Every structure is written in C-alpha cells, then in structure tokens.
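Appendix B. Raw example, untouched.
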Amino acid sequence: MEYKTDIEIAQACEKEKITAVAERAGIPEEYLELYGNYKAKIDYKFMRDNADKPDGKLILVTAITPTPAGEGKTTTSVGLTDGLRKIGKNAMVALREPSLGPVFGVKGGAAGGGYAQVVPMEDINLHFTGDFHAIGAANNLLAAMLDNHIQQGNALGIDPKQITWKRAVDMNDRQLRHIVDGLGGRMQGVPREDGFEITVASEVMAVLCLASDITDLKARLGRMIVGYTYSGKPVTAHDLKAEGAMAALLKDALKPNLVQTLEGTPAFIHGGPFANIAHGCNSITATRMALKCADYVVTEAGFAADLGAEKFIDIKCRMAGIQPSAVVIVATVRALKYHGGVPKSELNHENLEALEKGLPNLLQHVGNIKNVFGLPCVVAINAFPTDTKAELDMVEAKCKELGVNVALSEVWAKGGEGGKALAAEVVRLCEQPNDFHQSYELESSIMDKLTAICTKVYHADGVQLVGNAVKQIKQLEELGFGNLPICMAKTQYSFSDDPSLLGAPKGFTVTVRNLKVCAGAGFIVALTGDIMTMPGLPKVPAAEKIDVDENGVISGLF
C-alpha cells in the first residue's frame, strides 16, 4: 500500500459542511459563527441556554513519559472518539489548539495522525480562527500599558526591577528570552531588563482556558499581577485599568471552535496552554460545552500523566467542578524500549529485556492514576507494525498484575474501526465506581502541596528550595495566595526534574528555584530544574520542510 503523509490523508478527506457537523452535535445554527465552510465558533450563550441539560461522561487521555519515539496521544484521542461513534455512542472530542512554536519547531503539526485526525488540518495547525493572535495582543497590550504608566510618571510606584509581566509571541525564539528595552533616550521609554514568553505559556492563555464566562474572564484578567511597587505591594492589571480592553480583544477568542474528525465526528479545539510550563488542558468552556452535547467526551491533557493528568485533576477539575469517569494511558512498545535504554535507531527490533526495563515508567503512571487519583484506567498501546506478539503479551501481562486491561489501538492505520476495542473498554470503565480525589488539599501550605506532588506523583524523596524560592513562599502566603493550587513547571522527559533520568527513577530530589503567583489563572507556578517559558528551535526546524504551492496547497505539515 502506498504510504501517505498525514497532510495528504487530511487533504484527500471529503469534509462535511460545519453546519451539518454542528447539527450532529445538537448545536442549533443560531449559535454558530462561521469561519468559512469547515470551522465555526460557538456562542457561549449556548451554555447558558443548556444549563439544565445533564452532562455526559468525561474520559481523560494521558500518556507515559514522552520520548523521541512518539506516543500518539492526540491520535488516540481522535481515534477513540471515532471508535465510540462506531460502536453506537454519541461522542465528541475536546482538544487544545496547536502552538505555532512546535509546529515550526519539532512537531510540524499536532492535529492527530494517519486516519485519526481533526480537519481542516492545515488551518488548525496554523492561524486557525485567530485565538492565539488575540491572546498575544491582549498580553502585549498589558505590557505596553505597564511601561507607559512608568513612562508617564509612575503614579503607582512600580519598581522596574520587580516587573514580572513578560511580552509574548507564539514562536520558538530563544533570542527573546532575556532582552533590554526602552533604549534610545527619554522619549523611547524607561530602559529595563525584559523578556518574552511563548504565547501558550502566558497567563492570559491560562486565564482564557480557565474562565467560565466573559464576566469571569474580565475579573481574572484584572487580578493578574504584573509586578511590585518599591514597597513590595503587588500591582495588577486592574490597577492599570487594562482588563476591559484586554477582554474586548478576547471576547471572540473565548468562544470554542468547532471542527470535525476525518470521519465527521464533532470536535472542539480551543485554547492551548503547554503542560510543562502551564496547566496543559483545553478550555473549561469547550469541555463543559462538549459535556452538554455528547454522552461521552474525550479530552487530553498535555505530555505525560505526571504533568498533564496531575494538572487536569488538581487544577482544571477543581475550577470547573468536573471529574473524569475513566482515564486512558497511551503507550507504545517502541517508547517503552527507549525508556529501557534502546537508542532510537534500534527500536524496530524485538528486545524483551529492554521492554521489561522500560515498563516501570508505564506502571508508575498507571499506579498514580489508580492509587493517587482513585480513577479506573486502561492502557492503550498505540500499534506499530514492528511490534511483536511477545512484546505486546509482556505489556499486557505486567498491566494485568496491577488490575488494568490493555487495548491495542490501531487508529492511526484504521481510524475509528481501529479504536473499537479501546472504546468498548472505556465504556465499561465509565460504569465502574471510582474513588476520585486530588493529590493534595488546597488548605495545605505551599510547601506541603509541593511535597505531595513530588513524592506522590513523581515518587521523589522530597523537595529542595533554592535561590529565591524560600523567600517567595513566605511572601506568597503573607499576600494571601497560600490556598491556591500548584502548577509545576517541569521537564516533560522524566518523572524527575532531570530530563536524562528515564524510566521510573528513584532516589532523587526535585529542585524548586522560583515560585510565581498567577493570580488571574488562580494557581502558583513552581519552576523546577532548568525549565524555560520560551523554547528554542532545533538545529533543523520543521519550518524548513513546510511549503505552499501556486494553488495555495500546503505541504510539509506532518
């Protein structure tokens, strides 16, 4: 069979008009704001008018610790949803929007893969409906108003050396991590050290994704802290009178985007915070809206379960008042062998010894979902042609020892048909009783919450505070922020804060070097290890392979 790239498969698909997809989802045309034939925003009034409708069941898709071999979490989420519809269930998928940074950097696209994709794939991976541009504009409007306030006399007494607000651009641009601006004389601004974050790490992104409606959005924007005065008092966007204009820029971005899978299944794609430096989940608005439209809603949380699933449960579920009925943990035999020490070039060969060494990574994620969070789960093995029966049997046997079933997911090659077995197990799990709970109590101290995440979820020996972190904890608790949840900023490549420690490492301590309150989002960010909020491009960026022809047809998106 001739091999087709993801973009070739997506471009060959005959898409349905988005009005028909919306009708299938039970969304009347009066709530649609069309962006061409195949994309639409849904007015948030839909939620208000359907408030009394019962919610469907929520299924969280997460994964093992990521490797260069790839796991396929989005592909599995899409294929599982198509599989649920194949077995007669009313299902929807709710995903994040891809960031331009990874699209042009490493990934080259993030809309699923093979025959389990959301379309129009090119639009979703590039500008889509302009949400990220609006978020970046709102972020940078606040930055401009902040510097203008200082330039115009600084009535609030803002200390330029204690400004915490950064500018944002949705691109991997390491050159902008640390800059000096305001140069060129008195009329060009106040010279100071500054920096950029990638848009998906901006607090504005987190606020948009956690806001319940436009009133809540405006209130959260107003609470965002941009810096401190010379006397140490926090300065907010509300102090700068910025939240109204920012909300005006974001009023359409707050509305979820409706698209479809290759098989015509309705899909919400909305918001896109990174899971290693933000909370890594699609918007609360989109998830809640999907739960009103479908009996089963599949959503994913970024990176592995120690990051995405932990933040989904400890942050998003708390704020949204929702909880998953079942969890899918995605793994591949290839990735597990990588965790067992096999180099990427040799992953296509059977290696039961390496697989056994790598399996503790999967089993630790499974144990966390079952024991730390009290939820039923299934392991979805994303199938590759090189997987052998002996390897698949070993994964199944080890998972069964923990009382967890394994389903072979063949959605990349077969679409929804290849997801029917996984779908059937998910439906079964959704009817199981569960003991859902978070990994810590909000009333605990900041240090106790950090310790709970690091010891229970990462299986570390403890937490070490370095640099300003000790002073920052005391300051944050004195300012009244002690009861907020914690958003860990940690490498995605390891349970630890050291990306080189693969598998299920033991005997390590997590180092927290900086704590920052995101008062609008409603959480405290704890920066660990060497994590940064602005990625850089790799030596050979995916952008080098992306092109467009004279007919406007894009190529090179994976």
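End of appendix B.
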